[in-house]
Here is the input.
Amino acid sequence: MRIGGGPWPLGRRFPPGLGKRDGRLTRILVTGSSGLLGNKIVEQAIAKGHEVYSTYQHNPPRLGVPLVLDQTIQAEVEKVVSLASPDAIVNSAALTDVDVCEELPEMARFVNSISVSHLASSASAHKAFLVQVSTDYVFSGEKGMYSETDQPSPVNEYGRSKLEGEEMARLAGEGNWCVARASVVYGWGRPQRGNAATYVYDKLSKGEQIRMVEDQYCSPTYNDNLARMILEIVEKRVLGVIHTSGATRINRYDFAVLIAKTLGLDTSLIRPVESASIPWKAKRPRDSSLDVQRCTGLLGAKPMSAIEGAEGFRTGAKAQADQVV
Here is the structure.
């Protein structure tokens, strides 16, 4: 564990009055804080006045008190949690490359499962509420529109490691954990690695043709929207499993076309293909779309439709272009 350079002296509390929820200061430890989701959670948490500690391994975060952490090492996790003394821990760090997980199942297990057990144990010891970010890939994909009560049955190593991570989160103790499942998270905020929407934007902006599968369905989740839902889960201390994906069931091809149309790009460059034609190393669930009724009923931040998310992504694209100029 190593402390990175940050805007606040370590150990100093934030100014009085900031981050107060129910009359108390809220300290949040966010893992994977330089990632696609973690970056947004940190940004929004600070904007709402929370005190945030941002852990990372290779890419320093933009905001929060930065802490270098290898969370597969239990002693390091305990040191960081003891140092930050958070009210809540949000674990957005994960190995999400499905084919890499298939090739390196032990690595997937260490990052996506064993590390969660370390976080959960420390959360229990320090009475911190744990939110474990998970995935639609814990399901087989045989029926789609899965609810929180449906039985998980992953078809690849990524899904198996994430499901085991969900089980490890329960070690935080009864009434002290939440598992938030998302699906195909996309958006701006992580230049070091693309996602489903930035891939379409990058390729089509250059006039390059792409192939997208039309027989695989999901519930694409805009990272800004997901961060708002997760932050509200922290503030309200929502318990148990909750689906926090986008509100629309859509196949990968139609989603790519939607992104392209919203950005004014040439949709003829997108070619529909069957998933059997893609030489993936890992099997993908055919339809892992999620039912978000529980989330819609509990949270003020509602799951966005694919159209709403695409509009948010378009706004972000303009902001990205303005920064370059």
In short: Residues 1-25 have pLDDT under 50 and may be disordered.
